[in-house]
Amino acid sequence: MPVKKGDIVTRKSYEHDTLFKVMNIKGNICYLKGLDVRLYADSEVSDLSLATEEEIEELKKEEKEENDEPLDRSAFFYLPGKVLHLDGDNEYLGRCLAYYKKHNIFAVGKRVSESEVASKIRSMLQEYNPDIVIITGHDAYFRKKGKMEDIHNYKNTENFVKAVKECRRYEKSHEKLVVIAGACQSNYEELIKAGANFASSPKRVNIHCLDPAIIATTLSLTERNKEVDLIAMLEKTKYGSDGMGGIISNGLMYVGYPR
To answer: SS3 helix, strand, coil % of the chain, rounded to 5?
Structure first.
């Protein structure tokens, strides 16, 4: 069957491991965007297969769901940590905002391009005063350019690092402002050194569009006097500690009484 713009496809050469949406077609080349994974790619039409409904449902089952204990609503009230989510991709941003809403977390989402996030983030921090800020979108490590350690060999890591440094100029404390930064294949070490609490990607793998939101949600819904189980939290994400990593942190939710 012919492939057209808007179709959901997989790549034969990658053993159909990722679902993509066809964003554009020029000649024999299709330009693709990951349905769940924060990834842009291009492929020859001959390498693509149309995904069936069964394949779509099966692959989506791999998305890990949180199994948080329900909150005791009988006597206490809860104030989860507030999230400011800055994303270079509007579709992924929408999915993350729906995820926060599902978990009853107050979140502000803004679509900000990766190249502009460093210049815009301070004013947004001042306006919304979040407990958690997410800086994400798209990134990639260009292996042909050179060493993994060189920040200039990444599509947007340098932009993310500048934004993280702006966050730390605004608030030095990792406890008062939690910073979650990075996207697919980002330089994890440089983001952590810049001041991020959590970042992608330790093994330079792709990450799921919800991975930063999963980290933020876990922190937001954990009581302030409780230390979050770092390894268990990372295991909730698509590729675990290969895709996301960070520092041991306390929760950000206030609990009050009486309700």
So the answer is: 30, 25, 45
Is the CATH code 3.40.50.2300 the one for domain 77-256? yes
Task: Give the relative orientation of helices 90-102 and 211-220 as an angle to the nearest 10 degrees.
Answer: 30
| Domain edges within the chain | 8-52, 77-256
pLDDT tens per residue, range 67-83: 555 666 678 899 999 99
Q: What is the pLDDT of residue 54?
A: 79
Predicted local distance difference test score (pLDDT) of residue 61? 64
pTM, full prediction? 0.86
Is the Cβ–Cβ distance between 51 and 42 less than 8 Å?
no
Query: What is the CA 254 to chain-centroid distance, rounded?
Result: 24
CA–CA dist 229, 249 (Å, integer): 8
Tens digit of each residue's pLDDT (9 = 90 or more) over 203-237: 999 999 999 999 999 999 999 989 999 999 999 99
